[in-house]
Amino acid sequence: MAALSRSGLEAIESWLEREREQIGLWAPIGLGAGISAWFILPDPMAWLAFCCGMLALACMGAMLPSGGRLRRMIVAGAILACIGCLLVWGKAALWGQPPLARATFVQMTGQVLSVRPVPAQAMVRVMLRPMDAPHLPAVVRVNIGDGDVPTGLGEGALIRFRVRLMPPAPPSVPGGYDFAARAYFQGIGATGKALKPVEVVRASTASPPLRAQLFGHILERVDGPAEGIAVALATGDQGAIPEADAEAMRRSGLAHLLSISGLHVTALIGAVIFLLMRVMALSQRAALHWPLMLIAAAGGALAGIGYTWLTGAEVPTLRSCVAALLVLGGLAMGRDAITLRLVASGALLVLIFWPEALAGPSFQMSFAAVTALVALAEHGRFRAFAAARDEGVVRRAGRALAVTLATGIAVELVLMPIALFHFHKAGMLGAFANLIAIPLTTFVVMPLEAMALLLDVVGLGAAFWWMTQQALNLLLALAHGVAASPMATLLAPTMGMTLFGMTVVGLLWCLLWRTRWRWLGLAPVLIGVGVTFAASPPDLLVTGDGRHVAVRTPDGMAILRDRAGDYVRDVLSESAGYDGALAAIATLPGARCSTDLCAVRLKDGKGRSWRLLFTRSDMLIERRSFARDCAMADIVVSDRGLPRWCRPRRMKIDRRLLMRTGGLSITLGTGEVRTVFRPGDAHPWISRARPRRPQL
Q1: CATH of 104-206, one of 2.40.128.20, 3.30.365.10, 2.40.50.140, 2.60.40.1920
Q2: Which has the minimum average pLDDT: 24-38, 142-156, 373-387, 516-530?
Q3: Cβ contact 415:370 at 8 Å
Q4: What's phi and psi for 407, nearest 5 deg?
Q5: CB 541 within 8 A of CB 556
Q6: What's this model's pTM, rounded to 2 decimal places?
Q7: What distance in Å separates the CA atoms of residue 173 and residue 675, rounded to the nearest whole number?
Q8: Which burial class, exposed, middle or buried, applies to 24 when counting CB atoms under 10 A from its CB (0-12, 13-18, 19+)?
Q9: Contact (CB, 8 A) for 469 and 222
Q10: Could you read off the pLDDT of 582-631 as tens digits, one per residue?
Q11: Lowest mean pLDDT among 100-109, 203-212, 337-346, 349-358
Q12: Coil, strand or helix at 290
């Protein structure tokens, strides 16, 4: 046994020796593992146990033979995981904003911290610091309709209004978007919509921020749907994009163009360096005696930093800016800086200062895409195929097209599991749409918009704004055309945390190693994606307020309240992996519905029939008939508290239960019940303790 262990250890050390250049790339993975553990584990005792376990693992690793790479990897990885958990735990304790305990209606006076117009929704979004209100959070976010915006509203203003404040919303159903967690780290403790009149107690004397001035300026210069895209490309603010256009960009795989990231920062820095080099080269003295590349790189770095600040310093922009600065530093030193080490360094910096970003799709998709691109570019065969060579124009263009298509497909494949986990759908045609969209945006739209802004200084930008608008209209036409295809997206039910973690580890294993053992990572990736698509979608979805219910039928899905808005419909259909129109439960065969109640029979995957009963109004229902209906039903769902004498056969889902569990998804055939709030979850954005998981 000892000899076998020794030979196994020697084999591992031999493999790590061949992979020695790649070992350092796992440093951000170790830090990220600790951050992930804090989000996944439920309470402080579990977080502390994880940190102690990692330190114990480091001690065990230190007992391996000295000088080995495996020993150093285990010790360093365990310590980094412990640091990651403590890092996000400490930031949550020191900088997070606890949510409002419960909904409250108040007359509030607040100091305006920032104002963000959202033309697509006909409102402005205001961040406020409540005055003389110790019972309210330190910062609240309030929406004010365009028609109710008072004169003098701006940063530093003091306004008074009535509002119903709510805690930041948790996911509506399991697997949905968790605004509560994001708001906690953004410092937002409550949200609401101001009721008119909104009175200005003290008008703002501050001039609008540069970003807001640029926002308004572009809206004045561009007309139609293109104005929202133009604003997003320049400022990173997507508030002026109509929902139909935003959805088309998402379905076509072009949404990354709207988020200020590597494409935009790189294009800007490259343009600045190009212009500086050309201008300085006009001087013979500068060309012969000045370090032109160093000066141009410094100018590009300043432009990148300024652009990052102007566009709000979101995670993709910060990542891109950090990466660009590292590239410029490497170029200034005469080194090949575009490597996976660069990506790892950028990830480490972002995780150290913004550890909470790891849980969001922006960080995950941004770094996954860049890692895939660089890993593909570093592959020997791909590099040999893509290398420049002396050949005809047609062959050169074909090679460039093949390289672009290959990189697009690689990115789409790597992003698929992340998109399935967060959005329950993945793009299928994005690689082909980006063949046109990326060159159009990089070499046509952005230079035209930059030139239009520059010429507006002397009042000559109108022609360039017209050309920008036409180019953006072409981009939108491409997005809508691709999005209309039934093959544009692939939907799947909610992907479990375990499957997602397994898939991500497999992807990283494939991307970061270089020997043939890297392909072992394909197994967990294929298992994770395959199980997700093969999983049975839930038969019953209930939102956290109990008002909206969706059931799966042989012909699709049906919703209880057919007047539900598009947001609710999208949340319910995407969580169930369904891409069709939602019917009304009242129209289902065999459904018996009145204005107050709706009863329906539903068969599960095993052919068993279930009786479901839903309430549809707040009216008092006669006890004798309601008690009889409850007793005949297997499951009763209501958005109000049901009396004790309502006793269904299997499960009663009412306001009292939903306040403790949040939204529910139920698979009838297996009896699986998933909840938004996990039992014992003590993360600081959870406002109250949760009981045991309900059973079907």
Answers
A1: 2.40.50.140
A2: 373-387
A3: no
A4: -65, -40
A5: no
A6: 0.87
A7: 7
A8: middle
A9: yes
A10: 888 888 887 899 888 999 998 887 778 899 999 988 888 888 888 998 99
A11: 337-346
A12: coil
How many whole angstroms separate alpha carbon 318 and alpha carbon 314?
6
The separation between CA 329 and the C-alpha centre of its own chain, rounded to angstroms, equals 30
State how far the alpha carbon of 672 is from the alpha carbons of 591, 612, 668, 669, 696, in Å: 24, 16, 7, 8, 7
* CB 200, CB 157: distance < 8 Å: yes
Residue 159: per-residue pLDDT: 94
Cα 382 to its chain centre, rounded Å, is 30
Spatial CA neighbour of 141 closest among 123, 150, 152: 123
Q: Are 359 and 39 in contact (CB under 8 A)?
A: yes
Determine which helix (DSSP H) or strand (DSSP E) holds 198, and give its type and residue range: strand 190-202
Average pLDDT of 14-38?
A: 93
What's the pLDDT at 265? 67
Bridge partners (DSSP) of residue 495 are: none
Beta bridge partners of 107: 162
Report yes or no: 662 and 675 within 8 Å, Cβ to Cβ. Answer: yes
When mean pLDDT is compared over 213-217, 225-229, 278-282, the highest value belongs to: 225-229
- CA dist 222 and 217 (Å) reads 9
Summarize the confidence of residues 471-490 as an average pLDDT.
89
What is the 8-class DSSP label of residue 208?
A: P
**What pLDDT, on the 0 to 100 scale, is given for residue 431?**
77
Joined tokens for residue 523? 């197994």
pLDDT in the model for residue 324: 67
Look up residue 679 and give its DSSP letter: T
Q: What are φ and ψ of residue 667, in 5° steps?
A: -105, 110
Encoding tokens for residue 317? Answer: 């922009």
Summarize pLDDT for 251-279 with one digit per residue, the tens: 888 877 776 555 566 667 777 777 778 78
* Phi/psi of residue 581, nearest 5 degrees: -75, 145
Number of other CB atoms surrounding residue 400 within 10 Å: 12
Q: CA-CA distance, 283 to 224, in Å (whole number)?
A: 44
What average pLDDT does range 326-341 have in this prediction?
65
Q: Please state, in angstroms and as integers, the Cα–Cα distance from residue 640 to each residue in 64, 344, 544, 652, 654, following that order.
A: 60, 50, 12, 11, 6
How far is the C-alpha of 72 from the C-alpha of 645, rounded, in Å?
64
Written as six digits, the tokens of 80 are 């980094």
Helices (H), 111-225: 179-186, 210-221
Helical (H) or strand (E) element with 160: strand 158-165
What pLDDT, on the 0 to 100 scale, is given for residue 122?
87
How many angstroms separate the CA atoms of 603 and 264, rounded?
51
Percent of the chain with pLDDT over 70: 92
Sequence ranges of the chain with CATH classification 2.40.50.140: 104-206
Question: Tens digit of pLDDT for each residue in 528-565?
Answer: 988 888 888 899 999 998 999 999 888 888 999 888 88
Rounded Cα–Cα distance for residues 686 and 126 (Å): 24
* Residue 265 host element (H or E): helix 262-281
Report the pLDDT averaged over residues 84-112: 92
Q: Is the pLDDT of residue 691 over 50?
A: no
C-beta of residue 481 within 8 angstroms of C-beta of residue 437: no
SS3 readout for 389-453 = CCCCHHHHHHHHHHHHHHHHHHHHHHHHHHHHHHHCEEECCHHHHHHHHHHHHHHHHHHHHHHHH
Report how far residue 397's alpha carbon sits from residue 404's, in angstroms, rounded to the nearest whole number: 11
Give 623 or 323, the one with higher predicted confidence: 623
Q: Which of 364, 377, 380, 378 lies closest to 414 in space, CA to CA? A: 364
CA 490-573-604 angle, to 5 degrees, is: 100
Query: What are the structure tokens assigned to 260, written together?
Result: 């200020």
Half-sphere exposure of 33 (CA within 13 A, CB side): 18
Taking the alpha carbons of 173, 174, 180, 182 in that order, is the dihedral positive or negative? Answer: negative
